[in-house]
Write the structure tokens for this entry.
Amino acid sequence: MKNSTLVGLSLLVAAYVSLMAGCAMSTPDSADVNAAGNQSLMQLHDIWVLETLDREALELVSERQRPRMELNHREMTMSGFDGCNNLRGAIRHLDAEAIEFGPIIATRKACPDMTLSDRFQLNLTQVRGYTRQNLKLYLLDQNGNEILSFQKTD
């Protein structure tokens, strides 16, 4: 009885060690992909100011009206300003080429013209992807069409 218990315990320990060793191993390819993906996500983690909406340059009375957003890839949140109201929301999905925002909440200020604010918020709900080039961020709809473009700012 004692020998069978020791054999069973030895097999259990051997199986556990094998399992843990297998979990700790990774291929160089997957490590490179993860490193590249993390670098890409880290480059999104910044403050962005809106340059175009539906590929049209913004016509603003004042720079204080310019929509902006901050993306936080670690907390999977976005916050910003739509030209009138402050915004906050979750990033529902994010990877090296796709981004999707969850529900967005906003303050309810009564600004004289809500056209820009409404269009900006509507476009945010349609975002499914992105591309980056240098200090520019392009948000894309489900068909890959550019619907918002931003410039990185400090």
About this structure: The beta strands are 47-53, 56-57, 68-72, 77-81, 86-94, 99-106, 129-133, 136-140, 146-153. Residues 2-34 form one domain.
